[in-house]
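step: validate -> pass
step: tokenize input -> pass
step: predict -> running
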Amino acid sequence: QVQLVESGGGLVQPGGSLRLSCAASGSIFSIYAMRWYRQVPGKQRELVASIGSVGNTNYADSVKGRFTISRANAKNTVYLQMNSLKSEDTAIYYCNADLQSTAIVGVRGYWGQGTQVTVSS
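step: predict -> pass
step: emit ->
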């Protein structure tokens, strides 16, 4: 069984910073791409940032220059450093990973449970 657990969300003032973490655990053989999505009630889930197994990154235009995605492969963990936060960044942030479990053949996508980020004064 594989689990992704996010942490680091909370309430922050506009212009502030937060660092999200997502740790994968369980029967993991290998992790490939890892991503952060966000979702506001009533809207589609949006891809925020992604990072490949060799560290190549991509960002949504709305967060370029403000957010940084990174990963610690030895810890099976992906991070999202969020700076200069705006009210429109308020959402539930979800971690997603493409990984190969030792228990299941093939690569599958896994999701965390989400962590709330609220940007408000």
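step: describe -> The longest strand covers residues 28-39.
step: cleanup -> pass
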